[in-house]
Amino acid sequence: MIQLKRAYDPAQESDGYRILVDRIWPRGVSKERLKLNEWNQDITPTTEIRKAFHHDPEKFTWFKAKYEAELAQNKALSEFVKTVKQQLKKGNVTFVYAAKDPIYNHVVILRDYVLNL
Fold this sequence. Notes:
Number of strands: 4
Shape: globular
InterPro entries: YeaO-like
Radius of gyration: 14 Å
Oligomer: single chain
């Protein structure tokens, strides 16, 4: 299962393979506390659309379309998906993110995109 978890929530054994999927390191969180297996900045939204979205729920449909278009053209995505699918054979994979909103953020889009490949 692919789980989503804020970087500010404690890591748990049930998280399995933990991937930080944010372009920017979460403010005030140490490397030790995050307990990551990897940090993948290459599959995150560009700064341009991230800033334009600004976590505004009213812009989420627009943001989703833009981010999915970026993912479709992203050369790093195939390697990321390969890693995720390999790790899912062993257990859970957790996408770690810093955004406050658990619904209107790029990680929800990324999870659904990966699961539909």
